[in-house]
Write a structure and sequence with these properties.
This protein is of the alpha+beta class. It is built from three helices and twelve strands, in the order αββββββαβαβββββ. It starts with a helix and ends with a strand.
Length: 193
């Protein structure tokens, strides 16, 4: 009787593990199908292709870049995803660590983005315009981590101009700003005036 029940437990455990492995493979296939994105990095922009549709974004025109951690590294803060968009009314284009040579791609993308976007922003400031940056409130950071929906969040605007820093309808003159503290651990920026 003991041998028969041990075999039942053994077969049951093996069937469960097989089912679990099959579930993992199906989930991986679904995720890979969902991430059928292809990118071509050019000197002055990037081509994104998904489901046979190609779109080009010049680095100078990309308004927002969003770096984030997801999956098993989400709590460690290790950046394994990034997204970009050419305007607040445009959808995010997602690049994940599933891409071959993701780290090289992300580094080259970020370098070229800064190289081409910074002159545009500096010129706007020189012309007396405000330069807008979009950020995610602390509440939305925790919400997106909890729900796992990393691209569904509302951004808020912080603007820079010759008059100073503009946040939530308040202008902080540049001369009154004492320091800016960037915390990689909490993803929080603290500005003291």
């Amino acid at each position: 009787l003991g041998t028969h029940s041990n075999l039942t437990i053994l077969y049951g455990t093996a069937a469960f593990l097989l089912l679990l492995a099959l579930l993992v493979l199906v989930m991986r296939a679904v995720m890979l199908k969902r991430q059928k994105s292809r990118f071509e990095l050019h000197e002055d922009g990037v081509v994104h292709e998904s489901d046979g549709i190609r779109s080009y974004a010049a680095f100078a025109d990309i308004e927002d870049m969003y770096l984030f951690a997801a999956g098993s590294t989400a709590m460690s803060g290790l950046i394994n995803n990034f997204a970009y968009r050419t305007g607040a009314d445009q959808p995010w284009i997602l690049a994940t660590a599933e891409l071959k040579r993701f780290d090289e791609f992300m580094d080259a993308f970020r370098s070229r983005y800064l190289e081409y976007r910074m002159p545009v922003l500096k010129q706007k400031l020189a012309d007396g315009e405000r330069v807008n940056f979009h950020y995610i409130s602390s509440g939305n950071v925790y919400k997106k981590r909890l729900l796992g929906n990393f691209l569904n969040f509302k951004t808020q605007v912080v603007a820079l101009s010759a008059q100073g820093l503009h946040v939530d309808g308040v202008t902080y003159p540049g001369a009154s700003l004492k320091c800016m503290n960037l915390s990689d651990w909490t993803e929080k920026v603290t500005i003291k005036d």
